[in-house]
Structures are given as structure tokens and as C-alpha cells.
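S1.2 Input.
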Amino acid sequence: MRDRNREPQRLGGEGAIARIARILAARGVDPATAQAHDAPEPIAALEAAEARIPPRYRSAVGDHPQVEAWVRSVALAAVAQNKGARRQVRTGPSLLLVGTTGTGKTHLAYGAVRSLVGAGIGVNWHATTVADMYANLRPRPGIDTERELLTLSRCPLLLLDDLGAAKNSEWTEEITYRLVNHRYNQMLPTLITTNLAIRDLRVAVGDRVASRLAEMTERVVLTGSDRRRGNSV
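S1.3 Output.
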């Protein structure tokens, strides 16, 4: 097992960028040209991203093969869609990370964000747990919750943590459907984690959401014991 507590990795150097450069060259794209259009300075961008990441996950590494493949796919899409302009995430594939409590889903999701930013790809991203999202979107005086939902729906990269963990209702099912449906239609990259088995997730979020998730995401299944309990004293 790799050490999840190692120091933060500066991924803007030889790691992710070198891999992406090799892929671009194999596809006939000049890596030097692809990286010359006002790309964000990787280390500075990564440091800015880490300031928004919870302290527990600031050293997160997306070192699962499927997660690494997702980073490459999103980075390549950003280059292909922004020729002659700054490499910016606009559309791309999504991931559904499935596993029981403590198997490293959130760690990998934040690691994927760090890898993408560290590769010099510009990305406007947001992360939230589903429970916090519902709490923030509940109607209350002075808050335009419809606008907040639209902002989440349009965010170029969304990390949606613990899908299916909050108590379900008609209202939460509607909110989840509207969010997922917009991102499905616009092909916006979404990182989703859930503790639920697929059959249980369908019950929790409804058939319409589950159907869209099945098409828009690649499923990453994580197994093993609860690492949090393993680290307890």
C-alpha cells in the first residue's frame, strides 16, 4: 500500500506534465506548442488550489490507475478544445468512486484535482459533500438558492462527495436530478464518491439520476478495510 501521509507532491514538474506530453506527441500534437498558450504556472496554481483543499487532503495523490487515466483524458480534452488559447477545462469524462467507508475515495478525488492543476491545466473547480450542498440549497430568506444551484451545475469541474449519504426526500431527489442532468447534458467533468453499492445508490438517488450516472461516469471500485480505524490509537 502506498503511503497516503507523504508530503505534498509538486505535480507540475516531471510527473503529470511529462506523461501528458508523451500522449500529445503520440497523437501528433507538439507538446511545446500545446503548452505555450498562457498555461497557468503549475506550482503557483497547485499552491492556490491546495489553499482551498481541506488540510487532511492537501497531500492527496490520485495514484489509482483509473484516476490517473481520467486526469490524462481531461487534460487532453482541455488542450484539444482550446487550440490557440489558454488550456482550460470545459468538457470531459466523469468518475464515480465507489467503496465502503474509509477506502480512500475522497483522498483519490482530491488527488485527481491536484494532479490536474499540477499538470498546468486551468480549471475552475468546486468541492462539496452532498449533505452540505442540500443544506446550502434549502430555501431561506435573502439567499437565491436557484442561482447557487445553477453555479454548481455549470462549474467546469465538480467534486461531489458522499452521494447517497444524506436522508432522501422528493426535494433532495429533485435537486440531485437537476444538478446531474445539467452536467450530463453539458458533458461537464464530475468526480463523485459514494459509500453505496450500485443497487443501493439507485434506490437512494432514483432511476433517472442512476441512469445518467451509469452513462456519464467510469466506475472506480475501491476495496479494503477502513483506513481511519486502522490509524486510530
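S1.4 Remarks. Strands lie at 94-98, 125-129, 157-161, 190-194, 217-221.
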